[in-house]
Fold this sequence. Notes:
The protein is mainly α. 80% of the residues lie in helices and 0% in strands. The protein has one domain (62-292): MetI-like fold, CATH 1.10.3720.10. Helix 3 packs across helix 7 (160-184), helix 8 runs antiparallel to helix 9 (201-229) and helix 9 (201-229) packs antiparallel against helix 12 (260-297).
Amino acid sequence: MAAALTPATARPRRLLGSRRTRAGLLYAAPVVVYLLLLFVFPILSTLLLSFKNEDGSPTLRWYADALTGVNLSVLFTTLRISAETAVASLVIGFVLASAVSRLRPLLAGLAMLIVIVPHFISALVRTYGWIILLGEKGAVNQALTDLWVPGAPFQLLFNEIGVVIGTTGVMLPYTVLVLYGVMRGVDRRLLAAAASMGAGRLVIFRRIYLPLVAPGLASAALLSFILSLGYYITPALMGGPKQTMIASLIRQHVMKENQWNGAAAQGIVLLLITFSGLLLLKLVGSLGAGAKKRRSGS
Length: 298
């Protein structure tokens, strides 16, 4: 009898499943159209434009230009400044997140609020704030001069130091948020157990704490690097001619030279680098999740 009832019960389930599928597709249609119009279509249009010559004929000339000469130098500058920003924000963010993660929940919440609030201020306003602070007669140089620091006042603007300081300030909230979430998940009992067995602080940090937060460190560094690739306002205002990044070069091609094809090729190159970073970030996240699962299983 059970076998006889199986086909009868399976049919309503198939009908219900098909209805749910159609309803799901119907609900997802606006999101799909939104993504197609605002993301997929512009990317495909830019990609096609990068393969067209000025007369409409197919060419790879713009990619050759993007990967040679001054354009290649700008690309290397962008990668270098992004890497320096990732390292600086990772070091400062690690210290801040480690200190905040040891506080009580109320104090930790207040500290994280102080870290996050600057993120809601316009990047242009924050950049001008850094310009005021780092100027020759700004608060930083004035303090260094009052402390009789040799060489003060220093040139902290319109060079790579100024750009890295500005971009690190923009990236710091992201880094602290990522690291804080990872550090709050560390079981402090493991550290206490290691200390009770005679392990020193350096050994505990190197062999227990650091491996536990390593996936978060990699994610925060990659996130800072990826987001720094497309910076425009901060490098343009706080850097000099040698700190021109690819976003500024794309703007120059479009606004001053009316060269949309070359700008499209440089945009695609930057997009490919960004996608590579995102894939690496996903790989690091999956490896960290696998390692955590293996540790919990053992």
